[in-house]
Amino acid sequence: MKELCFATNNKHKAAEVGRMLEGRYKLLTLEDIGCHEELREDQYTLEGNSRQKAAYVWEKYHVNCFADDTGLEVEALGGAPGVYSARYAGPQRSDTDNIQLLLNNLKKAENRKARFRTSITLFLDGQEHHFEGIVNGHITTRWEGDKGFGYDPIFIPDNHTRTFAQMSTEEKNAISHRGAAIRKLVEFLKNHG
Fold first, then answer.
1. What is the pLDDT of residues 124-163, one digit of tens each?
2. Domains along the chain?
3. Any catalytic annotation for residue 95?
4. Mean pLDDT computed over 42-60
5. Which of 69, 95, 97, 146 is the catalytic position?
6. How far, in whole angstroms, is CA 91 from its chain's centroid?
């Protein structure tokens, strides 16, 4: 089985993606390839960050890899937190702090439309490929559910009545931004891997 590194240390994301790769690839994490440094994410776009991380792993470790960056884009906040989603409330990258700040910033907002967007960059045998997934929805007024991570407890996707944090991993993957981007990646790997 071919090996493919997911340039992340986030065990939640790695587990989600591992299930979606359906045993076609042995999924490695940064820890598995001996990469213990913090990968830089200092670009101004999701695409830039995903490329920066994947390119670094490919160039330094010479393994096929992909990296993602995901942002929550809230219409009433002009697309914020966007590329800064993970560190919206500060460098501590606390999901609780990020959610609380977002809910506070939306207290008086009638428009609660938002979307999650994931950008993936794949380096496969030195060739660069890009994939994107988007899910539209809205921000709740309070936390609902205890599954998932990040902003999942306050995001309800369009045509649904529950937050991502109230859904099983399988339900979420079927409709999520990361799920859509990963499905595009998996389809590409089936045809080119």
1. 999 999 999 999 999 999 999 998 889 999 999 999 999 9
2. 2-192 (3.90.950.10)
3. no
4. 96
5. 69
6. 18
